[in-house]
Specification:
The chain is about 25% helix and about 25% strand. It has about 575 residues and is α+β, with helices and mostly antiparallel strands.
Length: about 575
């Protein structure tokens, strides 16, 4: 046991050293393409949970929490037990929040893990959190610390301890990315976050697991609005998900109207995303303690997924506008000396309509006809008959288009590209840096694919979402039944293998007995031959002695004749020697 423990410790040390090296070179991948955040109704219930492709890899997921949709759900299928510890599959869960004044000291973190083999928590689930599978799964609640003056809770993890420091008296991550980092927005900059949770546990049984995460007020424990970055990983990781795994993960997309990239989520180095005002982010994701009822819709929300059969446009949003002049500002990404717009031009339709769906057919017809009207004087007209083409100025990090409203009402903007790619999901009153008009609702026409279904038996395989197989896998009871059957088959195979090994061992024993019996017989023959040989050797020796005696006698006879002296025996007895040669 001591040797095993020493081997395990040595192996873990090697893994930690490798992890320490690779962690400096890379970062574990985002579960969403481009490091985007999720928000609103997407992934907000257990049956719409984000599916972690492989729990044996490290992932991070960003979430903007609002009071109408305070819970973020993830799910995965545990397949393997940990061979290193023997205690089960390792699961590391951690969270941090951007280092922003409006959040500092106000947020605590909570997690509820549901699945087979868990000990039932004595803590009650928060109001509004509906457990999976009608409450048939046990759950364990993990609570983040309330004292952040020490990083001990983070330093238990060998990877994350490299990124924990006390800054301003609070446990923080200070991520200093150099020139070698690939992302032009992130490289050559220091990015700061606050640690709010870090927990290591084991999954002891195979099966489907669900994780609900949420923020609470540090003083009252009530639900709040805010944002955080969640890490789901093994205890250590010294490799990263494959390209195929990342591609599969990114097929689960976010339609969130905010949190479009790393800088926008962190609200740092805003000059790298066209210098939007800080008040914009405070308006999108305010800090506030949630009421038990009557919470208002957040300005940062998930657009509704809609299908555009012709794939001509990507987004449509409805704005309530009074009469007046407004500005729609498109922003470039990258440092001031190397900025670039996501696209050099874009076609739009801007028309008066009560709803986005009502105006969609008209807009699609204009996009389909592709009869573009080039915008002049950077002014977008209100028109249900024009597809207006915008040329984006590449000589500056922003391009402002003007909109004049003469009649108050609801107006719908349809765009060829996603507005969040230009940090332009809002319209502002002209000349105002703190007046933001966010869409009442929005439709996303890019992400109309059916929900991603990952095969829970063969992790990493994507299942056709329209197949019977996918429908079958949507039920955790079915998954558990399959896994139970597989476990039984595995046990049967194990028993058959043990029986086969036993039979082989018995056959080997019988064979050895036969060999030993044969060997015993051979040994008997060898012993008989040995005795016979020894007898012959003794007789031969006696013959030699007799010959020597005879030689001595003959020598004596030749020297002294018949009257020679007698030979003395061994004991001094005299041996008579016959005088007659014939009697010799």
């Amino acid at each position: 046991n001591n040797n095993n423990n020493n081997n395990m410790a040595a192996t873990r040390l090697v893994c930690v050293l490798v992890a320490a090296f690779l962690a400096v070179v890379h970062a574990h991948p985002s579960g969403f393409a481009g490091g985007r955040g999720s928000c609103g109704t997407e992934y907000s219930t257990w049956d719409t949970a984000y599916q972690v492709v492989s729990i044996e890899e490290a992932w991070y997921l960003r979430r903007m929490q609002d009071c109408q949709n305070p819970f973020f759900w993830t799910t995965w299928d545990a397949q393997n037990e940990n061979k290193l510890s023997g205690l089960g599959q390792e699961l590391y869960l951690a969270a941090m929040t951007p280092a922003l004044q409006r959040f500092d000291g106000k947020l605590n973190f909570r997690m509820a893990l549901f699945g087979p083999g868990l000990e039932q928590s004595e803590d009650f689930l928060p109001d509004g959190l509906v457990p999976p599978e009608n409450g048939n799964l046990k759950y364990t609640i993990f609570k983040g610390p309330t004292d952040f003056s020490s990083c001990d809770f983070v330093d238990e993890n060998p990877v994350m301890r490299q990124y924990s420091d006390i800054t301003d008296g609070v446990c923080s991550e200070n991520l200093d990315l150099g020139d070698s980092y690939e992302d032009v927005i992130m490289k050559n900059a220091l990015w700061k976050s606050r640690w709010i949770a870090s927990n290591q546990t084991y999954i002891t049984e195979k099966g489907r697991y669900y994780l609900a995460t949420w923020l609470v007020d540090a003083s009252t424990g009530q639900l709040v609005s805010g944002k955080y970055e969640l890490t789901i990983a093994p205890f250590i990781w010294f490799g990263y998900a494959t390209n195929e795994q990342v591609e599969l993960a990114h097929s689960q997309r976010s339609t969130c109207t905010c949190g479009s990239n790393f800088a926008a989520f962190r609200e740092e180095h805003l000059d790298r995303i066209g210098s939007p005002p800080t008040a914009l982010f405070e308006a999108e994701n305010k800090f506030g303690v949630c009421k038990k009822s009557g919470n208002t819709k957040a300005d940062c929300f998930a657009a509704e997924v809609r299908d555009d059969p012709k794939d001509l446009l990507e987004w449509g949003g409805a704005f309530e506008l009074a009469d007046g002049t407004y500005e729609w500002t498109l922003r470039a990404d990258g440092p001031p000396d190397n900025f670039e717009f996501h696209e050099p031009d874009m076609s739009v339709v801007f028309m008066k309509s009560d709803t986005v769906d009502e105006a969609f057919e008209t807009a699609e017809g204009l996009f389909d006809a592709n009869s573009k009207t080039h915008v002049t004087a950077d002014t977008i007209e209100v028109s249900s008959t024009k597809l207006q083409h915008l040329i984006i100025n590449s000589g500056a990090p922003t391009h402002v288009f003007k909109i004049v409203i003469k009649t108050p009402g609801t107006y719908v903007l349809f765009t060829q590209h996603q507005p969040w790619e230009f940090h332009a999901v809002y319209i502002a009153e002209q000349g105002s840096s703190n007046s933001f008009i966010f869409p009442l609702l929005a439709n996303d026409y890019v992400n109309a694919d059916a929900p991603v279904i990952i095969d829970p038996i063969n992790t990493g395989k994507r299942v056709d979402p329209n197949s019977f197989e996918a429908e079958f896998y949507r039920s955790n009871a079915n998954i558990q039944a399959i896994q139970k059957r597989l476990a039984n088959l595995e046990e049967d195979n194990k028993m058959m293998l043990e029986k086969q090994n036993s039979m082989e061992a018995q056959n080997e024993t019988t064979t050895m007995a036969t060999i030993m019996k044969s060997t015993d017989s051979d040994d008997s023959e060898v012993r008989t031959l040995a005795v016979t040989g020894l007898t012959v050797a003794v007789l031969a020796l006696l013959g030699v002695i007799a010959a020597l005696l005879l030689a001595c006698r003959n020598q004596g006879a030749r020297a002294g004749g018949s009257n020679s002296m007698p030979m003395t025996g061994i004991d001094g007895d005299k041996i008579p020697i016959a005088s007659d040669d014939s009697q010799a």
